[in-house]
Amino acid sequence: MPVEKYQAERILAALKALAVRGFIKRESFMDECRISSRTFDRFIADLKFYVPVRYNDVKGVYEVDRTQKDRRTEMLEYYKKIMIKDDFLLFYAFVRSMIESRYFFPPFETDSGISSQSKGFDKVLSMLKDLVHPADKAIYDKVEYYLSGHYSLRNRLHYKNVLEMILNSFKTECMLQFSYFYSNVKVMPLKLVFYNGKWYFIAYLSESSRMAKDKCGVVRIFRLAYIKKPELVHGEYFPEVEIPEYSFSRSFGIYMDEDVKKAVINLYGTAADDASEIVWHNEQFTQTLADKDGKKYAQISFDYPQNGCVEVISRVLSFGTHAEIVSPPELRKQWQDEIKAMSKNFTK
Questions:
Q1: Is there a contact between 315 and 333 (Cβ–Cβ < 8 Å)?
Q2: pTM value?
Q3: Cα–Cα distance between 234 and 103 in angstroms, integer?
Q4: Distance (Å, whole) CA 147 – CA 88
Q5: Residue 247 confidence (pLDDT) above 60
Q6: CA 250 to CA 330: how far, in whole Å?
């Protein structure tokens, strides 16, 4: 093995020790690199040409000499940058973008009125920033997430009131009653979900003014935008009721239905090229096929609830002529009817 390779390994080991622990310990470094005491002394002498290290008599270790800031330290600083944890970099960027977003978080009551910026968020950002090395902050600021809004600014008060009631229902284990379109309902809250740019409330429906009692006792999804006049109902929470477990991973979209069918979607052109990045469901099956002329296209299949057909159709329509619903027949017909209606309405 060439001498240069041994030296490169030793340099990397020294840079790692200085970046992670802040020092090089003679005995452990010699064991790690399998070198003698004389070789270690020669290596430290060579290392000083690139990184100003000095021996600390008190601690018995070699560390960076901070009194020689004018000396060359590019090698160590560069090593620190390439050692930045990519997962933490993305996590920091995501949390920072959420906090700085004007719309992503629901509105809160602040000293200056209703705002999406809670006082505590600044503390969270400050704590995260403290975990970032000063020399690395420029790199962390190069990653951003753009997060969609979920409410109009003029409706902040509505969202604030509804969210407060739902969260209080979670905390106090009280049922919730509210108006929803033309119904008055009473529910037991299960989950508050942000999905695809909108807030949803999943709850066990106990009573409804537009449904018979025997038709209730089911899990329903409500849009926060349409919940009106929410109130807590004390003393009626019944956690002993067995609620079916709800998981978004079981089928496509936010909607729930026991009648689950399999959708098959063909993607053409640029959409087919991007098929590997199109994930509508975590258990979807994607494959590349070819038509009778040998032209390639992509096909995606996944399970979807019957009452979630509108969401499937809207996703397919977003690709225009580059996407086609193949099956089931009833879903394909609904998609075709929607296209015909669009053509009729917008070609007048």
A1: no
A2: 0.56
A3: 32
A4: 19
A5: no
A6: 22
What are the pLDDT digits (tens) for 198-211?
788 888 888 899 88
CATH class of 3-82: mainly alpha
Backbone φ and ψ of 84, nearest 5°: -60, 135
Edge-first strand listing for the sheet containing 285-290:
285-290, 296-305, 260-267, 323-327
Closest CA to 231 of 156, 165, 158: 165
DSSP count for the chain of H helices, then E strands: 11, 13
AA letter at 127: M
CATH number, domain 155-233, options 2.30.30, 2.50.20, 2.40.50, 1.10.1740:
2.30.30
Is 338 in contact with 313 (CB distance < 8 Å)? yes
Contacts within 8 Å (CB) and 24+ apart, 37-46: 43/7, 43/10, 43/14, 46/7
CATH 1.25.40 given to domain 260-346: no
CB environment 300-331: b (16+ within 10 A), e (fewer): bbbebbeebbebbbebbeebeebbbbeebeeb
Start-to-end CA distance of the chain, whole Å, equals: 79
pLDDT in tens, 265-285: 999 988 888 877 777 777 788
Please give the DSSP secondary-structure letter assigned to residue 174: -
How far is the C-alpha of 79 from the C-alpha of 256, rounded, in Å?
Answer: 50
DSSP for 128-159 reads HHHTS-GGGHHHHTT--------S-GGGHHHH
Alpha-carbon distance 39 to 45, whole Å? Answer: 10
How is residue 306 written in tokens? 């019957």
Find out whether 228 and 179 touch, Cβ atoms under 8 Å.
yes
Burial of 53-89, coded b for 16+ CB within 10 Å and e otherwise, reads: beeeeeeebbbbbeeeeeeebebbeebbeeeeeeeeb
What residue type is assigned to position 299 of the chain?
Q
Cα gap 330→337, rounded to integer Å: 10
Instruction: Kindly report the length of the chain.
Output: 348
Residues of the chain within CATH 1.10.10.10 domain(s) are 3-82
